[in-house]
Structure formats: C-alpha cells, structure tokens
Amino acid sequence: MSNRVESISAEELIEEFELFDDWEERYRYIIETGNSMPPLEAKYQTEENRVQGCLSSVWLVIEETEDGSYYYRADSDSQLVKGLVCLVIMLFSDKSADEILQLDINDVFEAIDLRQHISRSRSNGLNSMIGRIKSLALEKLHT
C-alpha cells in the first residue's frame, strides 16, 4: 500500500466538481477524499511540520522522488480540512519545484467556486497551506 495520494490535474479536479449538483455533495466528496488519504505517521506530526495559520492542526511534509519531482504527505485533526489538504496535495504532487511554484491554485478554486463555500478562517488556512507547500518547494530548489 502506498503512503501517498494520487496526483490530479487542475482540469481533472474541475471536472470532478462538475459532476456534483450541489455543495452538500461537494462537501461529502471533499471529506471522502480526505478519508482516503493515508494518515501521516506520528513521528511527522511535529511542531516543525505544522502549518502555521491554520485553526485546525495540519502537518505537512515534502519528499523527493527519484526523477526529481516532489510529493507531499499531510494530515489534519479536522475531517473537512483533511479533505481540503488532500485536494491541495493532489494538485501539487508529482511536479518539479518550478512547476509547484508556477501553479496558481487560486484559479482552480475559483473555477470550482470553493472559497465562497468555506469559512474565512478555512480559506486563510488554505492560503497558509499553499504558502507552506511553495516555501518547501523553494527550499528544495535552493539545496
């Protein structure tokens, strides 16, 4: 069993969301997606790996593959947040540091109307997560 989620393109994620008639179904999809994400081992759930700016606890680690691309693993103590984290990871994983830094995930969220359907604090937490993902990629770029 793999300890990582499959990557998804922005277009594929937008198509997934178009399958649902309403936001109740979309929330269920987000939560189910999060539940499918393998839990992050306790040894990684440290203050160093904690995403600052999230009300829920969110831990995030980056790992490099043999081909030089990166993938992320994460966990959260909130079901909905874990689902949001999983969507973000699916979009950013299996990309080079340059691709990660160039991906404008806000365009994707706008296309699926996500920010209008989550609280301001969750939206701020999402921004913190994206910022952390990009800063980890930037660190890898300079090492």
Give your account of this protein's structure:
This protein is mainly α and about 140 residues long. It has a single domain (about 10-140), classed as Sufe protein. Chain: A (Alpha-Beta Complex), CATH 3.90.1010. About 50% of the residues lie in helices and about 10% in strands. The chain has helices spanning about 10-20, 25-35, 80-90, 95-100, 105-110, 120-140, and strands at about 60-65, 70-75. The protein has a two-stranded antiparallel sheet with strand order 1-2. A hairpin with a 5-residue loop joins strand 1 (about 60-65) and strand 2. Helix 2 (about 25-35) packs across helix 3 (about 80-90) and helix 3 packs parallel to helix 6. The N and C termini lie far apart (about 30 Å). The relative contact order is 0.19. The model has no long low-confidence stretch (mean pLDDT about 90).
